[in-house]
Amino acid sequence: MAAFQGLPRRLQASPFTVAEAVESGLSYGKLRHRDVLTLSRGIKAVRSDGEVPLALLTRPFTLVTGYSAASHATAFTIWEFPGYLPGADDPGIHISRQYPHASPRRRGVEAHRAMFRDDEVEFHDGLWITTRARTWLDCARRMSVDELVVVADHLVRIPRNEFEDRTEPYATLPELAAMLERHKGTPGIVKAREALQLARVGADSPQETKLRLACGRAGLPEPALNVPTMLLPGVSRTPDQSYPEYRVASEYDGETHNDPLQVVCDVERADDYHRAGWIEVRIMKKHMLNDAKEAVRKIRDALHSRGWRRTPDH
Question: 154 and 215 share a domain?
Fold first, then answer.
């Protein structure tokens, strides 16, 4: 790599534009070196055996194509959305370009044309990319309603200060509603509207969202989500889902609950619920199979034992 000693480390480790290389002092002659690969028109990369993160791979494509941004499945992956998007693993970088400009025609690019407002695209770590809210809408066409709810819950979730380095949600329910109102003719808009009606602030994981949706379809009452609850004087718990009127709480125990220290915490949690006269319904991965029928049954049985009955209008 002696030929590229003058090239900034960032450009040695990831694709770059020809303009960036020239600005860094690299001559056009060195850009013809055998270890310099041409990824697309105006985009180069130094030959390497390492895997390049998608965001770094996508960055130069948004720089050489004016009025464009990473979007759709590419933005879905870069933003690390939870859930499943069909085709997200397919090769090809998704780039959207603003009307009236022509869609980009580049090797390895899945091209789109779109109408962006200024607040629907952002410059993130050197990459032009659609915002999370706009990405959610753009992907609606290829997602189920439930998966759209999973992502919406993720976007509007209030972060926990002790675990995250942010204090604000990625989006709010009114912001998502405004996004749908702006783009009424977008493919998938009907599913997105239905998903928004089902989205709630409070779910901490995709499985919690899917459990809530399954319970709703079964006619169970709407639960409180991750609301701190005083069980006894000086004893507070924050159930994943709770029905305070019936003193029933459901907790989803994922793989992290196999840790020995977490097992101790779970036993203490169960003791707190028992001493307070609450029923704790523990849900595990196996209970979520077959559309979470077993999980729903467990919660329904607990509610029935406390006097809840499904009303005729449900």
Answer: no
